């Protein structure tokens, strides 16, 4: 995943910025791949240190968990799903094993449970809280791409959608294709996939390979 100023600030606050950056791959510019095929780069800044970084999401998650485990005041409970929260008394009910439940009473509750947050849903039961969720038309697929010019984030821009690749340590790239779901649904077989890439990302075909 791409790591820039905001993520670095958060890592610095928990003393992990240097450790994460020691294995991160600097991306000094965006390499733009227009439909014409004449690729060009747009630097992130004027100095050599002006860059964003590519980090391995799994390795980052593992490091954060390991460091949390080392803190004496943190206990981690896997496979425990928050089911209910009474935010007047800070009483939380979690799933425990396949059928069990456990109740926890706490001084503070920080809800960090993602886009479909149960904490937020429970907050809405206790206060006059409005919340609106809208889905965009786009979905994404990840693919692996063989080595290209390193130290770049490669971008194939389009008005409605785009493809980006971030470098990995084994010199391969992880490619993310972001597109309206309707276009993904139009890809029915190998031929229609190739037609899509010929129309929108022609210079990527040689790099990825034409057959599945
Ligand atoms: C394709 C894609 C590419 C992205 N690329 C980047 C990138 O390059 N750089 C970047 O900075 N960001 C990127 N993002 C965004 C980034 O992944 C999210 O912003 C980030 O993961 C959000 O973190 P979060 O902790 O809020 O939620 P999440 O990562 O969703 O974590 C929520 C956690 O809460 C747990 N949980 C949920 N419900 C419960 C419950 N009831 N009880 C207990 N636990 C629960 C979940 O299991 C999960 O572990 C990308 C996102 C996508 C989809």
Automatic annotation (TrEMBL):
<dbReference type="GO" id="GO:0071949">
    <property type="term" value="F:FAD binding"/>
</dbReference>
<keyword id="KW-0560">Oxidoreductase</keyword>
<dbReference type="GO" id="GO:0004502">
    <property type="term" value="F:kynurenine 3-monooxygenase activity"/>
</dbReference>
<dbReference type="GO" id="GO:0005741">
    <property type="term" value="C:mitochondrial outer membrane"/>
</dbReference>
<feature type="domain" description="FAD-binding">
    <location>
        <begin position="6"/>
        <end position="124"/>
    </location>
</feature>
<dbReference type="InterPro" id="IPR002938">
    <property type="entry name" value="FAD-bd"/>
</dbReference>
<dbReference type="InterPro" id="IPR036188">
    <property type="entry name" value="FAD/NAD-bd_sf"/>
</dbReference>
<keyword id="KW-0285">Flavoprotein</keyword>
<keyword id="KW-0274">FAD</keyword>
<keyword id="KW-0521">NADP</keyword>
<dbReference type="GO" id="GO:0070189">
    <property type="term" value="P:kynurenine metabolic process"/>
</dbReference>
<protein>
    <submittedName>
        <fullName>Kynurenine 3-monooxygenase</fullName>
    </submittedName>
</protein>
<keyword id="KW-0503">Monooxygenase</keyword>
<dbReference type="Pfam" id="PF01494">
    <property type="entry name" value="FAD_binding_3"/>
</dbReference>
């Amino acid at each position: 995943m791409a790591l820039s100023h905001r993520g670095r600030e958060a890592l610095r606050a928990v003393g992990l910025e240097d450790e994460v950056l020691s294995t991160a791959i600097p991306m000094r510019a965006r390499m733009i791949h227009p439909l014409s095929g004449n690729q060009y780069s747009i630097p992130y800044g004027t100095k050599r240190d002006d860059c964003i970084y590519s980090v391995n999401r799994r390795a980052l998650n593992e490091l954060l968990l390991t460091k949390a485990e080392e803190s004496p005041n943190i206990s981690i409970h896997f496979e425990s799903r928050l089911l209910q929260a009474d935010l007047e008394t800070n009483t939380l009910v979690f799933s425990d094993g396949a059928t069990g439940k456990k109740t926890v009473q706490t001084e503070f509750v920080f809800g960090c449970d993602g886009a479909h947050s149960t904490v937020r849903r429970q907050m809405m039961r206790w206060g006059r809280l409005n919340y609106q969720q809208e889905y965009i038309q786009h979905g994404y697929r990840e693919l692996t791409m063989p080595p290209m010019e390193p130290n770049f984030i490669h971008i194939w821009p389009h008005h409605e959608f785009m493809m980006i690749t971030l470098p990995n340590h084994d010199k391969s790239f992880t490619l993310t294709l972001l597109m309206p779901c309707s276009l993904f649904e139009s890809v029915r077989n190998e031929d229609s996939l190739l037609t899509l890439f010929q129309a929108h990302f022609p210079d990527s075909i040689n790099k990825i390979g034409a057959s599945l």
